Amino acid sequence: MHIRKIITSVEEIYSEAEKSAKIPLRKVAVIAVIKNPFANHTYKEDLSTLTEASEKIGIRIAEIAGGAMEPYHIESYGKASIVGVAGEQQHGSAMVTTLFGDKMRKVAGGGEAWIPSTSKRMEAGGVIDVPLAHKDALYVRSHYDTMTVMIADAPLPDEIAVVCCYANRGQLNARVGGLKSSEIKGVDGLR
């Protein structure tokens, strides 16, 4: 799979509502922009070549994202795909299946919970919100978040952008209840 470029975006939030955080919220997104071999073609039933290629891409960008999270530990994750207008949304979805997600889990030090995901088709310069949730328990409400990603010159019509996103903690000032990260049992990916 031909990679045109890889982009790393780091956002660090130090305060919310004028209340400073003891530990800032760091969110990292790493995006691989690749050539879509199915762009400008008629319908193809088998997209397995995209899914298979996502494994190597997943390793590469998850390792970059893990490095960008240092010195923090990864607590949340999310993934996304953005398909250029000459492709189908399914082309991007094929890139962020379990093969890709398992590489993200490995870099995150495991993860019992499913990885929230989104995909869309759009022109270069569009915006996508990558959903985030706790890596071990989906019911940890404080970790429901997003990271907004925009790539000025991608995806081109015949490209796919694949996104790996991590965060080191939940929202600042989280106080609307739900399971706390200290209460996770880590058995079923929910609690």
> How many E-type strands?
7
The CATH architecture classification is: 2-Layer Sandwich
* Average pLDDT reading: 96
The CA-CA distance between the termini, in Å, is 38 Å
* Basic shape: globular
The poorly predicted ranges are none
Q: Let me know the largest β-sheet.
A: 7 strands, mixed
| Fraction in beta strands | 35-45%
Number of domains: 1
The SSE order reads EEHEHHEEEE
Helix content: 10-25%
Structure write-up:
The chain is of the alpha+beta class. It has one domain (3-183): BB2672 (60s Ribosomal Protein L30, Chain: A, 2-Layer Sandwich). 19% of the residues lie in helices and 35% in strands. It is built from 3 helices and 7 strands, in the order E-E-H-E-H-H-E-E-E-E. The chain has helices spanning 48-69, 89-93, 98-107, and strands at 3-16, 19-35, 76-83, 117-121, 127-134, 145-150, 159-167. Strands 1, 2, 3, 4, 5, 6 and 7 form a 7-stranded mixed β-sheet that branches. The longest helix has 22 residues, at 48-69. The model has no long low-confidence stretch (mean pLDDT 96).
